[in-house]
Fold this sequence. Notes:
Blueprint: H1 10-19, E1 32-33, H2 36-45, E2 53-57, H3 65-69, E3 74-78, H4 83-91, E4 98-101, H5 110-117, E5 124-129, H6 135-143, E6 149-157, H7 158-165, H8 175-181, E7 184-192, E8 197-198, E9 205-212, H9 223-232, H10 241-249, H11 253-265, H12 279-291
Helix pairs in contact: 9-12, 11-12
Bound molecules: S-adenosylmethionine.
Amino acid sequence: MSDYKDIATPSRTKEILKKYGFSFKKSLGQNFLTEPNILRNIAAAAELTSDDRIIEVGPGIGALTEHLARSNGEVLAFEIDQRLIEVLDDTLSIYDNVTVVNEDVLKADVKTIANDVFTTEGGVKVVANLPYYITTPIMMHLLMSGLDVESMVVMMQKEVADRITAVPGTKAYGSLSIAVQYYMNAELAFIVPKTAFVPQPNVDSAIIKLTKRTEPIVDVVDEDFFFKVAKSAFTQRRKTLWNNLISYFGKDDETKAWLEKSLEMSQIDPKRRGETLSIQEFGELSNQLMANKNK
Length: 295
Ligand code: SAM
């Protein structure tokens, strides 16, 4: 299969776009990669094997998809733009291990579709150059889909990648870092220059690699409540944890006593800022808040 010319070379991409009279839709985050080396590096970071079940979001004209297909694993790709379906039928015609589904991934029941499409059972690997306008919703949709997501190698704006991989005490650390790192280990893999895309986006991009945690980072009694507590602590970043908590939960004496007691039992100083708390500390605080409720 390596005899075939890569889809992502600038000349072949141009040829394909011309053949189909394709015009980019900015509203769908259509920035196509035209650097075969970068695509090879993305696929390599995902460490794919022929046993893998791979999910891609937004195959475009198939630039990344063919690198995924070359692993000989099974590939399922969700593409919202109906115009691209006939293009993909053509560009990926030599691969029999790719299924393209013409759906908005955010509306799709990804688990049911994956179970229908994949012929083997087990965890999935997500690999994608994500549409930048909905990077976070797509990642959270997949993480919470009920699928066993073993890893995610995904491209996004560098600024969002920084927030996802941030550690406590930094400006980029916030509820997004916590939401993702609660499920996965997160690392920045590499940066991609704007010049690797047509059309060129306005911002720099980065690839991050998320790997499923083998052990939970913290034992949380109620996940929804834990996420709410973490989010509330960042409502106004310049405020103390205490001020953000009373703004969110209430300023009456009973609520204050409950918050005070729970903070004390978690050994967290109320004067700290939310951004200094580790995921474990947020877990402990939310567990104490649950335990001390109605006491
Ligand atoms: N994978 C190609 C590449 O690397 O060149 C294209 C990536 S481009 C950044 C994002 C792709 O996601 C586009 O093909 C776009 O049509 C598609 N897309 C946008 N929103 C989507 C959604 N909600 N569900 C599925 N695909 C979507």
